[in-house]
Amino acid sequence: MSIKQQYIDGKWVGANSGNTRDIINPFNQEVIATVPEGDQTDAKAAIAAARAAFDSGEWSSTPATERGHIVRKIAELIERDKEELARLESLDTGKTVEESRGDMDDIAGVFRHYSELADKDGGELIDSPVPNSISKVVREPVGVCGQITPWNYPLLQASWKLAPALATGNTLIMKPSEITPLTTIKVFELMEEAGVPVGVANLVLGAGHTVGAELSSNIDVDLISFTGGIVTGKKIMQAASVNVKKLALELGGKNPNIIFADADFETAVDQALNGVFFHAGQICSAGTRLIVEESIHDKFVNSLVERVKKFKLGNGFDEDTQMGPLISAEHLAKVEKYVEMGIEEGATLAVGGSRPEDPELQNGFFYLPTIFTDCTTDMNIVQDEAFGPVITVEKFRTEEEAVKLANDSIYGLAGGVWTSDIVKAERCVAKMRMGTVWINEFNLYFPHAPWGGFKQSGIGRELGKQGIEEYTETKHIMHNLKPEPINWF
Ligand code: NAD
User: Fold this and answer.
1) Cβ neighbours around 114 below 10 Å, total
2) 251-272: pLDDT as tens digits
3) What InterPro entries does the record tag this protein with (predicted)?
């Protein structure tokens, strides 16, 4: 396919500076595309277009049903081009094509979900204390939205932002991760085809410290919605204070997965592996902190290790590949350093802990699935997000201890409990301080359930009907039908 460029005010344009960036396949480091490298100037042009489009009132006053139709059309076009999009996502991220196909189904589902919600909130009448008056509460679009996404689920994360923003009548500027922009570019083509009006949705490519920083600090942006790391999230919060922007932050996680001895053993082993090593651990909700009841700890770890040794690492385009590479050389170096830290801290390396020796994998950013045992909460590897294929295992004796260990984190994105005792499970999840908790499940999400974090995992919620709330302001309209003088003054 021909890769187009940035999309600003309804035109496909290169970077104002003329600069470009090569996009690399993490499996073999081949250049798969060259895209414009925008900067503050491009971001400012896109913000001006989005501002003018919003201030014209055309999109926000388009009937919500009609906006919903356009959002549904985007879903249909994604379904039409699913295979092309899935292959592009795998080229760009290294993940298996099977995973990417699943992502595309989910993405179409997100656009469908918001197309259906677009016209469902007609406001609410509330009781008014004044006779002969009407009080109603309505939701209106926030305005111009800056949207910044990470590289791990490039198009999925973009869809969580694009679909509700469009459905609710906002205008937007999207900045995808500079290393994985390809599927987002393609979806902007589909949005144009679906009939999103000129200026409503703009796409700027480029780095975080240039384009992202401009979106975060520009006074004409009303809301910034960011998914990414906690360090960047804090910078964005600071920058956004310039005009008290509304903020939606989806940050990192260090997610506990509690395994009780009475859980179905084989299922818990299987799902514990899936909960971490899917997409090579590059998932914000990965269950990287395994918390295992002492009586089954050794048997559980042995089963994990045996299974991990058989993982097939390779090209995401090969049918038998189970795990692809990490996203970049820089990220691989970060994961290597994290594992070194675990060894220095005294954790026991049960399996992995290095790059694979397979000659066919040497050009890719591969890292072996890794398990550390004898971990304690005071270790940095138990507290810090590795965002790679690394598990830390802690032991517990009592239910209270398990919950305490699970909550001992600055993060609060997600967590899981495995047990056959449903009362115990409900007791545990009620005390777990996370935005999503699973019982006998891990990592499952769907568009009608809200997603977001407690504590330092973020602010606000995406998906669900909460995603609509994120992109709307609440307005109270009080209408006195029979005004009379008060005669106070
Ligand atoms: P990152 O924070 O490095 O980058 C994310 C985005 O922010 C990129 O588009 C980047 O260009 C941009 N950016 C960087 N510096 C910026 C700045 N100063 N101002 C504005 N924008 C800036 O994160 P990443 O490495 O791309 O992604 C991994 C992180 O994302 C992990 O911490 C992961 O947990 C998190 N994540 C969270 C969720 C969630 O739903 N909570 C989902 C996916 C990923």
Assistant:
1) 30
2) 999 999 999 999 999 999 999 9
3) Ald_DH/histidinol_DH, Ald_DH_C, Ald_DH_CS_CYS, Ald_DH_CS_GLU, Ald_DH_N, Aldehyde_DH_dom, BADH
